[in-house]
Amino acid sequence: MQSTLKEFMSIFPGIESFFLMDSGMAIARILLILLGFFLCYLGYKKILDPLLMVPMGVGISMVNAGILIMPNTGKLGTMFLNALVESPQQHIDAFQIYFLQPIYALTFSNGLIACLVFIGIGSITELDFFIANPRMSLLLAIPAELGTILTFPIALIMGFNPSESASIAIIGGADGPMVLFASLQLARHLFVPITIVAYIYLSIIYAGYPFLIKIAVPKKLRGIPMEEMTVKKVSSGEKIAFSIVTGSVLCLLFPVASPLFVSFFLGVIIKESKINRFIDVSDNVILSGSTLFLGFTLGCLLSADIVVDPKMFKLIILGFIALFLSGVGGLCGGLIACKLSNGKINPLLGIAGVSCIPTTAKVAHKCAHEINPKAFIMPYAMGPSIAGVITSAIIAACYITMVPRMSF
User: Fold this and answer.
1) Same domain (yes/no): 171, 247
2) Does 399 score more than 90 pLDDT?
3) What is d(CA 260, CA 238) in angstroms, rounded to the nearest whole number?
């Protein structure tokens, strides 16, 4: 009877693999399959970002369902990808077995996927308010980096080493590609859980930050329309010149982050050059395609062995702390700006400095518009949001350059 059952189970290797792993791993695997279903549902209902959550949910569910005994090694694995290969020969062998291996090896392990996303983001970004008011935009963005700064020592206290702590702290910048790029540079062994936590939390921002705004900012201040401040029209030539000069200066000062700077400003220049064929490719193909494969590949990397790691629970806590502190810092900066301007600046611009572009700018606009239909602050919010991308990249570059040299 037992041998018959064993033969029957061998027909379905995915089910058989459940009985070959310990109970904790099997439970985590079932929970991850259900989590994938839930993320797909939230994306389908547009409660979370569908462009990211649907492919990520599909990847999480199916990679954990598709675990089997690998024919060559006899160990449990999947046919999706192997993130542990190192030597050139191992890469060549992996390319012939795992269908996602080329995408992972050629776009993830070197940070290219983050750069592709940045090109797409640049191609949909409006620079008018930032160029017209760079000082105000930067002053609003700097306090919104509170989580990026304070999470670093908190992570050290919780037992992470300096490089891991810096990678986790970048979550506070609310910039997914930045988190991926920095974690690959500083803590490659943790880049999957750090990036997964970051992207899930970034999708929750749209639902969570409005509650923080309602708690921290009085209703009458949320509805400031900013009618007295005009958004100066900036020509395409000025935007292109600004992008080339600013990008070159930032690459000169922070060469470690130069791939991100050049990608973002290249996207802006493509947009402002008004070359329609390039614009269609950068927006509809590069941004959409890279987001699809980013979400799907990250989902396929989230297997049960990562979730049962004790560090995962700490990462979930620290990710929340980082984004919460950045939101608080941004709103404090916005309230100070409102006070100094005698009530002319809507304090919600501060939350836009948390650089999840353009999500946080949309959050600021939506919360203001709910209180006052005349408060159309989206153009103003894009300034701090763009400044937040720059300040986050600068902090990431400082972490990548300085942390490995420090002794703690």
Assistant:
1) yes
2) yes
3) 21
pLDDT at 160: 92
d(CA 394, CA 145): 11
Any idea how long the chain is? 408
Assigned domain for 80 exists: no
Say whether both 5 and 135 belong to one domain: no
pTM here is: 0.85
Q: Which two tokens stand for residue 55?
A: 């492919």
382 and 126 Cβ atoms separated by less than 8 Å: yes
Residue range of the domain that includes 247: 100-405
Q: Please, are residues 337 and 133 in contact by the beta-carbon 8 Å criterion?
A: no
User: Whose CA is closest to 341, among 173, 139, 72, 79?
Assistant: 139
Is 234 inside any structural domain? yes
**How far is residue 188's CA from residue 88's CA, in Å, rounded to a whole number?**
18
Q: What's the number of domains the chain is made of?
A: 2
The dihedral region occupied by 30, where left means phi > 0, alpha psi between -120 and 50, and beta the remainder, is alpha
pLDDT in tens, 341-370: 888 889 999 999 888 777 888 889 899 988
> Same structural domain for residues 45 and 161?
no
Tokens of 257: 């982050």
